Amino acid sequence: MGAVTPIGNDVPTFWRSLRAGVSGAGPVTAFDATGFPVRIACEVKDFDPLVSMDRKLARRTVRSGQFVLAVARHAVADAGLDLGAEDTRRVGIVIGTGGGGITEMEDGTRCLSEKGPRGLGPFFVTSVMPNSPSCLVSIELGTRGPVVVPTAACASGNMALWEALRLLQWGDADVIIAGGVEALVSPLFFAAFARMGALSCRNDDPQRASRPFDAERDGFVYGEGAAVLVLETEEHALARGARIYAELSGGCATADAYHITAPEPGGDGAVRAMHGALEDASLTPDDVEVIFAHGTSTPLNDRVETQAIKTAFGEHAYRLAVTATKSMVGHTLGAAGAISAVAAVLCLRDGIIPPTTNYQAPDPACDLDYVPNVARQQPVQVALANSFGFGGQNATVVLRRYTAQD
Questions:
Q1: Tens place of pLDDT per residue across the chain (406 aa)
Q2: If we measure between CA atoms, which residue out of 71, 142, 23, 94 comes closest to residue 63?
Q3: Which entry of 42, 74, 154, 252 is annotated as an active-site residue?
Q4: Cα angle vertex 289, ends 207, 268, to 5°?
Q5: Would you call 135 a catalytic residue per the annotation?
Q6: Does 252 participate in catalysis according to the annotation?
Q7: Which of 42, 294, 347, 366 is catalytic?
Q8: 2-400: CATH homologous superfamily?
């Protein structure tokens, strides 16, 4: 696995920070936010692209591409995967993104306005293509299998894992580098999301602004980052003697068909995604011990997700641990599902459920066990991760501890 997040630029640092309840929120530094109604974000800090690429490539590569190449290299190294010994036609890339190159589109538009046509750089088109980060990974690592780029808003990261699972099951690849990336801390996006009323306005208290399921939540904190996992068939992993963290055992994608931003009030699409993922994994609701929730910290999402969990799991919902990583890393949009999946795998490995931080005031409409404020030691066999996106797109994946079959 590999991760670049607002609370750590590698998986061990991210995991230590997540368990400790560290917040990645602070004042925006990517641009001058003076006069903006929202001036806080969960930005990636102290990231050095030259650790993963040479100076020339770094100059030509946008921030999202820098993130994703770094995490892909980390993940391949962590997997002990020797691509030089692989049939690279059987190695694919599936990396989702919500907004793609919108930041670069904003910068290019400003440049065109101020300097005219010759002011645009020669790499503008490749900077704004949503598939650029995934293709960069393919080019730099030399993989020649399928390259797929799910763009499903905030569900993109989980959608990537679901797509990768299908490619492996269908026999189209032996190995898939899968995950999500987002780097959209820009004036346009901040102004737009603030105008929608989606962002927390706690500018004077950024580290306590993201508070999923808390009664006083007022919106999400914008985040950026990337995470990928090296997925492979069991046969391939065992043949090369791989260390196996966990099994991605099922997934499901559904649509609300209701509204372009709001979830369906009863959570029907989310319920069907959770049920479908469990059916795909040949598991029952009672098998699940922890849910890594979408948990955005918006008034509507958290209430609807809670209701969906209660509908999907019945009385077992009150025995589940429900945790929200966005309380610490913010909402990283297209990267969110992949970051949660990395956290879920580490939870399975270590038997530690990370907390939902900033949980102070119970909400009668959100009455489940949200692992408030302090990490919990608890052996876990099965974890479920939710991602729900604008447009009514839902994606749920199931991860479980791996047990070799005779």
A1: 999 999 999 999 999 999 999 999 999 999 999 999 999 999 999 999 999 999 999 999 999 999 999 999 999 999 999 999 999 999 999 999 999 999 999 999 999 999 999 999 899 999 999 999 999 999 999 999 999 999 999 999 999 999 999 999 999 999 999 999 999 999 999 999 999 999 999 999 999 999 999 999 999 999 999 999 999 999 999 999 999 999 999 999 999 999 999 999 999 999 999 999 999 999 999 999 999 999 999 999 999 999 999 999 999 999 999 999 999 999 999 999 999 999 999 999 999 999 999 999 999 999 999 999 999 999 999 999 999 999 999 999 999 999 887 5
A2: 71
A3: 154
A4: 80
A5: no
A6: no
A7: 294
A8: Thiolase/Chalcone synthase (3.40.47.10)
- Torsions phi, psi for 364 (to 5 deg): -55, -25
For the chain, the domains span 2-400
Backbone angles phi, psi at 25, to 5 degrees: -85, 150
Task: Please count the CA atoms within 13 angstroms of the CA of 238 that sit on its side-chain side.
Answer: 9
- The answer to whether 294 is a known catalytic residue is yes
